[in-house]
């Protein structure tokens, strides 16, 4: 049977792989040869499950949103990752990776961050596990995301300002990779999404697949069947989406909808719609769609949502799009803002701006009344209140 999961060489169709500098070959090989064994060990499973339950607060509820359902003429369930500790799905992945790092005897953790959400989730688990934590963050983002920087510092992390390039996520990632090259023996690099060289995309997808595992159980309880008609999620690098769809990815009864950030509109150039505008290239060790100019230089993406403006996309999603397994929609800034207000007013839930892009996708689909839809609310909107207030026009 055809599978959309990773193959034994680290590829999803023609996407993925591990395009890395020679000096990292040993580290990446070591991780590749260890991660599955750790993930499948009883010790890991027990500790991961316990932390997800008692520390993160899982399982996250699957909530039947009645008023939203009525509005769109179908049955919409919200997967509430916004209720997790630290406010988003990112913590699922950082808890898992720090357990793997500890198993491998690593003493020092590094991470990249854009908006700071992954930085905070990493600093959080480093405090929990008493590990040294260095977070690379673009200087522009440090200025824009002051509170998250203070949180990371309070948690005991060192935040290193990156001043190369546009001083944002792409540059922070380059700097983290450079650090890893200098300290390959004692350092573990916790990547925040389904990006980077194999095995990262697969490892992150497996760690986030707890989202989809719970969806299956919860749907069976509520609907008497363990699959929905639609799964909808936003995609930056693609980790909350990968976790949401993981257990239904090869089940063609389930339609997959991925919402990427249109920014000011895909025709304006101010956009982060990587799947629709990107061309095949290499970014941060993976072959995938990349927003680039005619010379192959990576272009700076734009979105009102700091968590979605990555110029690449996880190879798992590039393949789903290329094979037409997933429908990809781009949601512009204003559509996301409207969708966030709509959810807030209909259900009393203020979503993260990233998640608001998934909600914006509801308007682009024609549902049947009997359709069961599961939409992942990847995070809560506390961090975005100022943006909402500044941009709401009504
Ligand atoms: C980081 C983030 C995203 C985007 O990352 P993915 O890896 O695509 O999931 C989406 N939502 C929230 C709340 C985030 O913090």
Q: What can you see in these coordinates?
A:
The protein is an alpha/beta fold. It folds into 2 domains: about 10-50 and about 90-205, Rossmann fold; about 60-90 and about 210-390, Rossmann fold (3-Layer(aba) Sandwich). It has helices at about 25-40, 40-55, 65-70, 90-105, 115-130, 140-145, 145-155, 170-180, 200-210, 210-225, 240-245, 275, 315-320, 335-345, 355-360, 385-390; strands spanning about 10, 15, 60-65, 75-80, 110-115, 130-140, 160, 185-190, 230-235, 255-265, 280-285, 285-290, 325-330, 370-375. The strands form 4 sheets. It has a 6-stranded mixed β-sheet, sandwiched between helices. A 4-stranded parallel β-sheet has the order 7-6-5-8, with helices on both faces. Strands 1-2 form a two-stranded antiparallel ribbon. Helix 2 (about 40-55) runs antiparallel to helix 4, helix 4 (about 90-105) crosses helix 9 and helix 14 crosses helix 15 (about 355-360). The longest helix is centred in the first third of the chain and has 16 residues, at about 25-40. The radius of gyration is 19 Å and the shape is globular. The model has no long low-confidence stretch (mean pLDDT about 95). It binds pyridoxal-5'-phosphate. Pyridoxal-5'-phosphate (PLP) binds near residues 193, 234, 237, 239 and 352.
